[in-house]
Amino acid sequence: MRAGIVVFPGSNCDRDVHHVLNDVMGIKAQYVWHTEKSIDEYDALILPGGFSYGDRLRAGVIAAQSPIVETIKKKAQEGLPILGICNGFQILVEAGILPGALVKNVKLKFSCKWLKMEVLNVNTPFTNMYRLNDEITIPIAHGEGRFVISNDKIPELEQNNQIVFKYKDQNPNGSTEMIAAICNKEGNVMGLMPHPERASEPILSPNQTKSNAGLIFRSLKNFLSHIKN
Amino acid sequence: MLTKSEEIYLLKKLGRQPNLLEIDMIDAEWSEHCSYKSSRKYVRSLPSSGKRVIVGPGYDAGVLDIGDDDVITVHIESHNHPSAVEPYGGAATGVGGVIRDIISMGTRPVALLDALRFSSLENVNEVSKSKWLFRNVVKGIADYGNCIGIPTVGGDIEFDNSFKDYCLVDVAAIGLGKKDQIISNHAEEGDLIVLAGNPTGKDGIRGASFASKSLDDDENRSAVQIPDPFLEKLLIEATIEATKRNCINATKDLGGGGLSCCLSELSHLVEKGFEVDLSAVHTKLPDITPNEIMISESQERMMYIIDKSKMSIFSEIFTKYGITYSIIGKVRGQDNLKILYDGNPLASLSCNLMVNAPLAKWKSKRPNYLDKLRTKIRLEKIRNYNDVLSRLLANPNIGNKDWVYQQYDHEVGLRTVVKPGANASVIRVNDNKFVSIKLDGNSKHCYFDPYQGMLGCLSESCRNVVCTGAQPIGIIDHLQFGSPENPYIYWTFIKSIKAIIDFCKYNKIPVVGGKVSFYNETMNSPIKPSPVIGTIGLIKGQDHITKNIPNVGNKLFILGQTREELGGSEYFELIDRAEYGRVPKVNLKTDKKNRSVILDLIENGLIDFVHDCSKGGIGTALAELAISGDLGINVDLKKIPNTCKRDDFLLFSETHSRFIIGSSNPDRIKRFMKNRKCSFSEIGETDSSMTLNIHNSGKEVINSSIMELAHRYNTMNSTMDGI
Asked: Following DSSP, what letter does each residue of B438-480 receive, concatenated?
């Protein structure tokens, strides 16, 4: 079981994800520099957060044009589990691998804080260890995290069970329907704005309470161990 | 511009007339900003050695040994002048500069902190210059720090009208590394000199000289640099990779004074001569002159000295990250900095001469205003304490600052254990070792009494770090004043230095880094003396990390006596008595003892929480605790050890060396404290009433709902979000 962490110039959560997967979750993970041609040896891919290409033009838009993203697109169609966190989500959306768009927060400023979200889909490689409507405590840190999609597309998202997490109690950025994470129709590609890697060790949670955000990675481990056997 | 006597000195030393380029180079390096000519004599006397100090002040960053081959690097800088004219770019490039000092040592930057000073925010609904500066400084820091992926974990923010139309922006950075990977900075004959990063342009021309005089108009915008955090992030990764692969002999960032200061200081550091051809420098535009190349302060540039045989590795790494670099010269001979253009010699100067500007000699005199502050006046009795407390909590010097901290990514890097807004921030080194850091300052106290005010900043900063369970191991100082040519201001500077020496010698805590910034003046007036102190502490293990959030059922104790010390207090400012009273005095012996008592209590697991008592006194400290714990607090003033004549003095005095402690083990803590000979007593408890109830022998003094206090405590956040 091996996961690849795709690193673009300006990614800055790559080392954090690497630490959590290898040292906390026991998933063997390696960095994949964006110029690498082959990604065949990986059983899952993570696109970490950060500011790829300095967020120039629009968050994620330049990275989405890299050759490696074409390869990722093919892997997505083949059913490989792919997780985009924050900037990784923005790249997946800009590349058209996930629907909708991520635009500037309603208050037009960066927001870093802990909040709650709710689980709506437990049938993905990243959520299979949750129960429906579980509550997750997790931090966000973004300036362009407002998920928008045209109103007529929402019933389709709901029908396909593509809304995976919704913010609870408060909408931190003005996202449509309080959406925090979506997946593709098949469910193997998920993008989310909050940072599960920052809530995977109790010592980092406010007041060191236990957060269950790490179940996102444990679900992936669980999923991979099943398909391998 | 060089002074007459500096010109004469230069002529004598050089033995010939310098040419225009040489004058420009000397002018940049001999500016106050780069040469410390007004402060060097005093700064050198700061105690800077200790068993943990690997590299003290003077280099790019101080290096502290924290055991097991781990080191931390720490540095502080300011960007006051640029931020006052262009707050966004000025603050952002301030962050960039200090980060490059950390990577220059071969360590990875892991945390940022900022100390910010603005004029008061005035009316809630009014648009003001102060709000404009505040909003854009914060955005500049956020956009830069967030993009490079280094968490901004805390800081200190103060509002005072002596900063009218001005601001102070101090940035401190912490780096983490291994002892054997610190760059030793050496060079051999024939080594290559490589300039990497941003192309050199006409931005920031004469920035160092601009920062070395008072701000008189807005015509200096071209002296402000332009930020590019994306390139900075690439430089961080490339430099760390090159350090790991052992291909850097020496490195230095380009900051104030640009290429000119970088080359002279680096050549002086490695004790070798350099020969540099400016035609090799990659530039933003073709028509830039050699003089401009030498003194441009274009950001995100680093200088490296590379052994010829390692150049291919260096080249491979920098190409991977897409960073432009130029080989601009080589190491040749001793002490001489030779500048050419297309092979033609343009300048030739001794580095020793460049980096040793003649010391400036200024007069110092005790300012007269200090006498006026001592005059006694009568104070009316206060009727409504609830109202006073509520207004103090709404004061942005005291209130919640989430509006600022939530704009900073303070979580990236997975190290931030105690988040911004607490006593001090705590950073994880590994699961058994943690570093605590806090910046503190108090310009009101320093204005009243520069010596005691400075001692107070040191005491407060150490106190905050101790509150998290850490032993202070090093101090950084940033000394910010008006013009040193004014004898009254120079006097306050000398007094501040004296206070740092006294405090650090008594407590055996070394000064590991610092900076002096003079000429912080606008057309209106000079700023109040505004030194900022940063304390770095080490926490032994996870069990010792102590929080400042209470639980229902905690018994409350106070350590330290409260005296009538309200000079420069937030309370006196509130009731229009800002120019009256005595500032808190630090008794070094009690101060040290109380800190060690707190650490003993923590080590013995007797404390549930501990909170520092400073701005706004006991009254606001108790309110803050109730708000953060979302619970009620009941306290009897009579039980607080004090020498105050009035309840308001007792509630709002800012006496140092005090801690409020919560414990669910009251008997054990009392037994432990029995023979300690400290001012210590039980003063009340936390409860589920959701009211702050403070009384004196049964007579009600304060009775406020926590909801209402919390609302007032958030005033600054809603003010800044409102427009």
From this structure: EEE--HHHHHH-HHHHHHHHHHHHHHHHHHTT-EEEEEEEEEE
